[in-house]
Amino acid sequence: MRFVSMAMGCALLWGGGAWAQDVTKEDLNAEMRFQGGQGVFRQHWQVETGDVTCDGYQDKVAGYVDRDNPNGLSFLMVVVTREEGALVSEAVVPFFNSADQMGLCGDGNPPPKISLEQFTEEEVREMTGIDGACPMAIILEDGMCDLHYYFWVPDWEEDRKLIFFRN
Ligand SMILES: [Ca+2]
What we know:
The protein is of the alpha+beta class.
C-alpha cells in the first residue's frame, strides 16, 4: 500500500507540468498524420503557433482543405499540444456548403484562414457562457460567414478540450 501511494506521488509530481514543452514541427507532423492519414503530406497546411492551452508553452494549429474526405468537402483543423509531457491533438472537421452551425460557407477556394487572437477571460466568458477557457482564440474565417471561434478548455472533458463558438 505504501508503495502504491509513493508511485502516485511521483505521478502527481510529473503531472505538475515538469515535462510540458513547446510543440515542434516534428510533433506537428506526427499528429497531422495521426489525424489525417498519410495523405496530409500532399496538402499545403496553414500553421499557426501560440499558447492556446494557457500552460505557458507553444502549441501548433494546422489546417487544410480536405478534398479527399469521403463524407464531403471539409476543412481539417488540428490543434497539437503537450499535456504533462505527452503529445496530444484534437481535430475538428467542419464541412463546406453546410447549414450546420459548425459548417463553413463557400467551397474552400480560397481556403479559410486560421488565426489566433488574444481575448480576456471576461470576454470569453461572455462569448461562451463558461469559465475556465483559455482566452487565446483559434479563429477560422471563410470570408463569407461569421467567424468561427475555438477555445481550449483544459478541464472540459477527458478527450475533448475544444469548444466552439459562433456569433
Ligand atoms: Ca500550450
